[in-house]
Amino acid sequence: MMLDTSKNILIVGLGLIGGSYAKALRKLGFKISAITLDREDIDYALENGIIDFGCTEPDPKVIGRAELIIFALYPHVFVEWIDKYQSYLKPGALLTDVTGVKGAIVEKIQAMLRPDVEFIAAHPMAGREVYGVKNSDERIFHGANYIVTPTSRNTDAAVEDCLELGRLLGFSHVSVLTPEKHDEMIGFVSQLTHCIAVSLMTCYDGEKLQDYTGDSFRDLTRIARINDDMWSELFLLNRDALLDSMDKFLAEFMKLRASLESGDRETMRTMMRVSTERRALFDKK
């Protein structure tokens, strides 16, 4: 299935990411349907031209005509949805997702899925500190990374279609990882950073901290405004990889602390030089 604008696309879960997918794809000329729980979100999306059609309940006709379905759901809800409604799927349909963990769900969904449809997992590494379709913006994908995580069950055609989707959405870098390697990397570059931001905000309870802080603290804690329901689920589903990343961070932090306590300036400077060199690789050209 090549991703041309004649294909019917269905987005299940019209929040920040699902809404941003809808905006980007509809601007490219695709016909977009959506299923999401809140009628207010559907009405907003219709009124603002984000989707062509929407409903709040899984409609067999809507699901059955979709050739590409994008799931923007919590992991456990995604699994439950497939279990309940996969009988409505159109034969030959391609399914993908935006889920932040892969090892806990990809094999599970692929094993339970009908043989005449295919699920190819992906993770858009983009977001904002606000939620909901009203805050959706396709520009969050520009300059961001997009990771496709195939397994041995996936066809080459599905992998290429998913990669093409990432390129169409405007991601600057599209890559392929195994679900296991994805979770290892995400545990470090995403989940650990959220853990650090949360810990920074909870370790000091001084009054009016916002009146005295500088840009460095604001930058480090930008992601501390966090959806506790979603992120706690993601942390637990990726427990082993995240714990490993936390242990690595703690070891380096304690090394820095020990050098400060002992007056070992050279160790501090060495760590700072390594940090500066590695961080330079992230600067967008």
**Largest sheet, if any?**
6 strands, parallel
- Low-confidence segments, ≥5 residues, pLDDT <50? none
Helix content: 40-55%
The assigned structural class equals: alpha/beta
- The beta-strand count equals 9
Percentage beta strand = 5-15%
* Global morphology: globular
Strand order of the largest sheet: 3-2-1-4-5-6
Distance between the termini: 34 Å
Please provide the ordered H/E string of secondary-structure elements: EHEHEHEHEHEEEHEHHHHH
Radius of gyration: 21 Å
User: Can you give the mean pLDDT?
Assistant: 94
Count of helical regions: 11
Write out key terms for the chains shown:
285 residues; 3-stranded mixed beta sheet; 6-stranded parallel beta sheet; globular; 9 strands; alpha/beta; 13% strand
Describe the structure.
- The protein has about 280 residues and is of the alpha/beta class.
- The chain is built from eleven helices and nine strands.
- It has helices at about 15-25, 40-45, 60-65, 75-85, 105-110, 155-170, 180-200, 215-220, 230-235, 240-260, 265-280, and strands at about 10, 30-35, 55, 70, 95, 120, 120-125, 145-150, 175.
- A six-stranded parallel β-sheet has the order 3-2-1-4-5-6. Strands 7-8-9 form a three-stranded mixed β-sheet, covered by helices on one side.
- Helix 5 links the parallel strand 5 (about 95) and strand 6.
- Helix 7 (about 180-200) packs across helix 10.
- The longest helix has 24 residues, at about 180-200.
- The two termini are about 35 Å apart.
- The mean pLDDT is about 95.
Short description:
This protein has helices at 16-27, 39-47, 60-64, 75-85, 106-112, 156-169, 179-202, 215-220, 228-237, 239-262, 265-280, and strands at 8-12, 31-35, 53-55, 68-71, 94-97, 118-119, 121-125, 145-149, 173-176. With 285 residues, it is an alpha/beta fold.
